[in-house]
Each structure stands twice: as C-alpha cells, then as structure tokens.
Amino acid sequence: MARLAEIRMLDAPYHVDRPYTYLLPEHLWGSARPGRIARVPFGRGNRAVLGLIVSLSDGDGTALKSVLELLPERSSLSEEMLGLCLFLADYTLSSVGEALHTLLPPTLLSGRPNIRTERIYRPFAPGVPSLRLSDTGRGRIRSQEQRQILSHFASDPTPLSADELAARGITASAASLRALVEKGCLTVQEREMIRNPYASLAIARDDSPIALSRAQSAAYERIRSLDGTKPRAVLLHGVTGSGKTKVIMRILDDVLAEGKSAIVMVPEIALTPQTVGIFCSRYGEGVAVIHSSLSQGERFDAWRRIADGRVRLVIGTRSAVFAPLSNLGLIVIDEEHEHTYKSESDPKYHARDVAAYRVGKSNAMLLLASATPSLESYTKAKSGAYTLVELTERYGGAVLPSVEMVDMRTELRQGNTSPLSRALSDALSETIARGEQAILFLNRRGFHSTLQCKSCGEVVSCPHCSVSLTHHTRGDGGYLLCHSCGYRAEPPKGCPACGAARIAYLGFGTQRAEAELTAALSGCRVMRMDADTTSGKQSYDRMLESFRRGEADVLLGTQMVTKGHDFPNVTLVGVLLADSSLYVNDFRASERTFALLAQVIGRAGRAARRGRAIVQTYSPENEILTLSAEQDYPAFYRSELAVRRAATFPPFCDIVTLLLTSSDEKKLFRCAKELRESLLSLASGEFADLPLTVFGPFEAQIYKINEKCRLRMVLKCRNSARLRELLRRLLLKFGSERAVTLSVDVGPLSV
Questions:
Q1: pTM for this model (two decimals)
Q2: Mind listing the domains of the chain with CATH numbers?
Q3: Nearest residue to 367 (alpha-carbon basis) of 357, 356, 382, 376
C-alpha cells in the first residue's frame, strides 16, 4: 500500500478548487501531516505549484503524481488553524487558497521569508578586552572610541548590536567595530531582528491593580461567574464613557493569569498608540499588534512571535482574529457594531463569525462590547443566546452631554448658507475662549460635493463610474476627484453636456467646513482629519497625539473622529449634516446613523466638565436623530426591530447578495438572466425545502465602477449548510464564465 495525500491547490479558482490525490514519497512519510504546505506538479504541463495537505491515507498510488517537496514547518498550519482555514473557505464560499492566504502573512509562502538580521558583538573571550587596552605593537588599541567599546564589554560581556551600544551611550561606528573584530578583540555573529513598531510602548510598565466602580465590579463579577468549561458569549453593553475597557482589562488579567491566551480586536481607526499603549504597558513584550498599516516585515515578525509561543495577547483589527495562538481563552471584539469587522474582499468573512467558531473549538469566551450594539447581537443577548451585561452610567461621576438640535431649514430662511449654524459658531467661540477643545463631525470629504449645470441640470460625473465627481481644493481652482476609482480632472469651464458656462458648485465637505471655520473664528486652530490628510503612514496617530497635546482647538473630520477616542479636554461636539446617512437606500441606514451620532456625541464631556453637543439637521423631528441625541439605545432597538420584523430583514432572516460584474453589458445581462433561471430552478426543485425569497437582478447601488458594470440579486434566507450548497452549485456553474464574474456575499454590509 502507498501513502497518499489529499491536497488543495493554493492558486486554484473556486470552480476547480477540490482535493487532488498525490503519492507521498517514502522519504516524506515522517514529516508529512495535514496542515503542511507541499510543492506538487499540477496540470498537463506539470507546473510546480503549492498546495495544502488536508488529509493522509493509504491506498493504491499507481498512476498518481508524486509530491515534490514539503515547505519548511514554519509555513504550515497547526491542526486548529487547518480547521479554521477549512471553516473559513466553507462559510464564506471562497477557495481554500484564498482562506489560507488570509491566515498567513504574505511573505511566508513566497519562498523568501522576510527575515531581517543584525550584527551583534561580544568579547572574543572573557577578560580579553581589558587586556587589549594595554597591548603594545601592531594590535595596540589607540582609538578612544575603540577603547570605550572594550571598556564596556569588560564590565558587561552581554552581546550587543551597534544600535544597542548607542542606546547605552557608547559611540560605536562600523569602522571601529570592524577593526576590533579584525584585531581579535570581538567576535561578530548574525541575529534575527524582530520588527515591532510598538516595542517602546512596553517599556513603561504599569501592572497596578485595576480599580473598578461599583457598577463595573458588578459587570465583572457577572462575566466571571459564567461556566468556564464550555464556550460562552457575552455582550457588554455600556453607554459611552462607562468604562467598558476597565472591565475588559480585568477579564484579560484573569485569563492570562490562568496561562491562556487572548485576542482583543478594535476598529482600525481606534487602534492608536494610546489604545495599544494601555495593553503594552500592562502586559509588556507578551503583546503583538496586527493591523493593515504594518509593513510586510512587521506583520511577518508579529506572526512569528505569535506562532512561536512568545506572545499570549494579540491586539489588532479584523485580521487579528486569525492569530495562531494556542490555548485560547478569550476573544474581545470592542465596538462590535463597526462595519470594518466585515471583509468586503474574498473571503468575505465577518470577524464575529470567525471568533464564534474559534471560541467554540477552544471552550473560550467571546466578549462583545459596544455602546450601540448591532441589532443582531443585541437580539441574541435579549434571547439568551448571549449573556447581556449592561453599564448604564458613566465612569467617575461623569454625565452624558446635553444635546441641542438645530434646524438648518431655519438657518437657510434667515440667510445663513454656511455649514456652521449660528448656535454652533457661538458655542465654538465660547469653548475655545475657555481653553477647551471641540470635535466636529462631517461624513463627507472634499470642498463641494457636486457640480451641476444651471442651464440643463447635468451633473459632472466620472467618465468611468456612475457617480458624480467631488470638488477638492489645493490653493488654486482645485480638482475633481472620483471617490470610487480615483479619476482626477480639472474643473470644467463649461457644461460637458450643453456647453453653457453656468456651473454651480453645490454642497460641502470637510475642506469647505475647514475654510468656513477658519474664516468665522479668528485664531481658531483647526485640524482636519479625513482620507486626504491621513494618507501617510502613522499620520493619523500623529494628528491624534497632537490634538491630545492641545496643539489644535478643533478636530474636524469624517468617521475617523467619532470612534473610541477619549479626549479629557473636549467639551463640545458638533455634527454637520446629521441626516446625510439617514436617507440612503439601505435597510441598515437607521442603525448606522444612530450608532454614528451616539458615538460622536459621546466624545464630549468624558472628564469632570459636562459636555455639550450640537446636532445640525434638516429633519429635527426624525425619531432616529432624537433617540441618538438622548443616547436611548433600548428605545431605538424596539423601534427599529419592529421595522425589521415588518419588512423581514435581519435579525429575522439572513441576507445573501449575488453580484455579477462585467465590462460587456450584453454578456452581463445575458448571464444575469441565466443566473436567475438557474437559481429559481434549484430553489423550486432539489432545494425546495429551503426558505428563500429572491429579488432581482437589478442594478447595484453604483452601477458602474472603473468601466465595469454591475448587477445584483438579493436573497432573503437562513444561512445553513444546505443554503451554502445551493450557492456553491451556482458558483461552480458560472465561475468559469470569463467575461462575467460572479461573487457571493453572505451577510453583506448593505444591499
């Protein structure tokens, strides 16, 4: 009998992604196992490709191709991570290769691991450096710099790099170190470097006990009372400023003290040095950080430290849920309602679903935390599927800010066309005069949002996408930018449609708000934070720290100014265009608007002084805006749940979108018709047992992006293995269509 390996190719498209059987050469029997990466011949040309071993068996190896080699053990998956990889592929309807590339750092499978080394120096033999100081003749040490280096090693022979010597106040040039090696005073060797941009945050250790208020202690005790021998899920729902982080830290202390490991996830825009510093100062070098802004080398080194068991706590964004930790005891998802926890590229996973799988396999705890939980999570908590733990008051006696709604229709009638109402302008002046700070939220970039011809009504649009162009400034006439594909153009002198020179610049974004603010408030220091000002690496972090130090009076920006920040000196929050996200064609619009406004209002008055919020709107009577101003999540939940129940939207069903994309419109519409027919045939035949409602095909919200047209179908259903089998049939049938691409998203962010 021969030894056989079932292997999934890493670069196989979905419609040919299946196990292939290979003969395992005898010299690899001892090292091959499920989870190892193998190089195998594939296809008619026997091209050498990489594949993942998913199982081993005995059988007849006649006429089978043989495995060529195994990649180093470092690039393999443990049994737990192999199960996670296969779960991810199945649950998101992606290929195993796509799932594996999500789990592993990019450089690991390249054959060129991104390992950086540095030279370290140590005495040639104990006592030698001090003897060399008095040597005579050819090898005599004359250089004062060299003598200083040797004196240090004479007192402390610990091997050090040139940078480490410099950190100790020892000048050590490359020439001096090379000379000492040549004279036999020092030896040199290579040492692997760990690139960790957060290493300095672990220096100032703070392991003092965490003091909890009475409400926090009650929440902590409720969570700790849960049965630790089986998987459990907790929703920690606390108003903004209630101190959820302190409760989380106490739970973390307990989990790590038990010798287990933990993952703490936060939204990308909340992962600041301040946030990371809280954990690094408490848990030292046992912390690794994972997020998208790391370089490939930094990400690889973080993964190495985790995989090698040198780390027991991982802090990061969505992808941190795949950290290869062993003995997992806790996964925390802070601000669990955030849309950034859902991937919009394959595999289209939600971190919450992956976390639930991992805690289920590890008998661990899933701890979700938010002031504005998703309706799905809060429903599970109310039904008992999650344990609901609530914090209803702010920490340290702080109170929620007072909120004033300003009707911008009245402002217009009174002749005020500025983005700033008179009430907000006055409040800003008063706040700055007191030496306090303010945050202004406007969820729209650019200077003007639209250019429109006053003669024919034509809107200046992107030639490659079905969206209007946004006007940005740069000191001159500015430029027009497409926020979908990045297309740039000069502002037109006349209408592209009729030629009339009557172009109106309409609407406003953060650039115009900044200009108006600077003009209205003399001497006001404004810091604008949006995608245009934070494109550089760490620019976002630097701006936040600058604002924290008081180097600006007003922080003006898009969503990135609303989440997870704690600025003690901020006593005023202003919201411009509060209803801009309310009237979009999406069933989650109300939920998103409530969360955004409640979160940004909660940035005010988080210290001793009470905060104030001013919300500018054209719909002051809207219930969603009123409830967000009152921070009344339970009332919002009851209202929105009734709407969802009546329309049969989540949490009363699951949603799946099928998206067809093509640059050929005729083929796109033909394929869409065939897709609908195939789906309805399967749904009424073999899969008639599935509860399923089909809508479409119809145009996507943005029909054309970068010259590619898009049609979609929406399914209301229940996510199950049977449903995924139906969807898999569609992907296999239409996946080989070259002119049209079909993608499936289970649980999309919007429809």
A1: 0.90
A2: 2-109 (3.40.1440.60), 117-192 (1.10.10), 205-396 (3.40.50.300), 402-447+508-645 (3.40.50.300), 654-746 (3.30.70.600)
A3: 356
